Amino acid sequence: MEKVAFLFCVHDHQPVGNFLHVLENAYEKAYLPFIEVLKKYPLMKISIHYTGTLWDFFKDHHPEFLETLRELVKKGQLEMMTGGYYEPILAVIPDTDKVGQIKRLTQTIEEEMGVTPQGMWLAERVWEPHLPKYLREAGVEYITIDDYHFKKSGLREEDLYGYYLTEEDGKVIKVFPGSETLRYLIPFHPPEETLEYLSRLRGSSCAAIFADDGEKFGIWPSTYHSVYEEGWLERFFELIGKNLDWIEPMPLGIYANREKPLGRIYLACSSYMEMDEWSLPTEAMVEYGKVVERLKESSEGGQIRRFIKGGFWRNFFAKYPESNDLHKRVLHLREKIGDKKKRTVPKSQDPLLYLHQAQCNDAYWHGVFGGLYLPHLRHALYENLIKAEALFDRKMHREKEWIDLERLDFNGDGDEEVILKNPEMVLLFSSRGGSLLEMDDRSKAFNILGTLTRRKEGYHHNLLESRVQSSRDEASTAKTKTIHEIFDSKEEGLDQYLYFDGYRRASFLDHFIAEPMDFESFRRCQYQEEGDFLKEPYEIEVRKKGKYQEVFFTRSGSLCKDEKRDQIKIEKSFSIPTHQRVVKTSYQITYKGEKGKTNFGIELNINLLAGDAPDRYYNIPGRYLEDRKLASIGALNDITEVHLVDEWNKLKVILKTDKSCNLWRFPIETVSLSESGFERIFQGSSLLLYWPLELETGGQFEVTVELGIQSL
Q: For the chain, what percent of residues have pLDDT higher than 70?
């Protein structure tokens, strides 16, 4: 009798920059216990993938775990799979890096396990048709993605019990479709349901393919209790063992070498089903979700849903400009570095060592997974980018003091940007709003302006419609749920923090606000902006003044007062010295309208990563703050200097002005959804320096503001 081949593939990953205690928890709750259970059942032969961050972690902290893996590899229980070392989205990194990252992980597996992997895990299953050419160049023979990809290319469920061939430029790879049904059954439903699913395939020579995240075996909510304490995994393996007369567990590679392909296919650009939904614009994401729910309730829903597809992974770069800027900064530097073969430098001095880490996918996107909303993950990518760029610039500039300036649309948004740098820092300006997007301290490898804008997400309606509590009540009595079904909350009343910004939270943003000034309305971004400078383009001019390099922004705009359109002009210049971490900004405002009053404000958004930590705080010389945390809220008058102190990273951000001003300060906090539910996250400290202005025809207002960084 023909046996059903059961192909069990597990993917384990932690992002670059994740906290060590998070990795240790994942090791104790998922990675170690999974392998310990597997050791008890020699009948189970599986494929497993660990990303480079985990290989580094195991080597540094748990070498005994690697010894256990070696034993299982030698026994044939474990087939190791390769992939991009730092789990990049391969489709959006340079072709040379596609191959280089895969080869590096392959080499690590060869050195540690004594085998050469033939199969590969594709990060986030983000497939684009050009990939086979580079996968084959890297030595990959097969990959696993989702059956969803295949269904969107016209195949049916019954067509997917095996693998297919696809190619690009004549370079052929084998592609396995992981089962959506098994992905939702394992390990959330009783093991018997998986056996029932497999039994439907009895009597045929076919494969049932499970390929999903290893973190669901212990880290996802409630799974450590269900999978290990209640023994789900052992019961599952025991059930497989009792049915070996018709089930044959095997790694993907054994099946790929033993069995013929089901045919040839060309797959459309796609990821897994949920990712395609998350990549849609917010309004479309909400409507898409409603359509999917209606189809689930329809008798014909299954047939129709086969032809319904969401978005495209790259649209995260359109959805989140912060993600796009980081991605394009990495590409921009990568192009400058060029071909590694042309360079001979020690590995520790190779910019690519850090640039590849900056390609790690997690902080570039957001859904239920994805770390865009996690400041420490965004910071880790910037940290590696800054280190890579510092190494490159050190090689390019032999002199001690220098200034570089580039003027270009580096991020492809249609607006002009300026990259200004010296040996100590990097500044990224945008013509949009005449704003400063990035300020990198090279000595600390820290972008102090990494604030994320508060945006409406598709899942926010769950809070707004007060569905969180009912979901929590259901969860207390229902079976273990997947993360796609959990809408719990880490904090009561999170709907009170759902404020959405009408503009990007950059720095040196120019506000005109009418009287009466209302702090709460401004903090919630529910106020009326009197000027039209925040989101409009400024003209750019670059100038050299001795040892200083200056970027000059100009815009003539309007104030909307009493239904009249009054003309006002802003001129502001940014200059940096050759060897300091300070940018000096000089403003000149000229008014051409009728007499009146307004308030002119300069907004800065600074992110030192922790809003409530005692070692990160405000210090305002000569003033006492009852609450000085970076997440504190407050208003002060007659201010000329503000310090934001970070004792953890041993740096201090200093903001000075030559004209006494009023100061509003408040945290930028987002409410986002993660695998454990809704959570409020500190994204940065917003500061508004403002001055009441008496507007006179032909009158001018001038002020100078300095933003600098000092080491503690």
A: 94
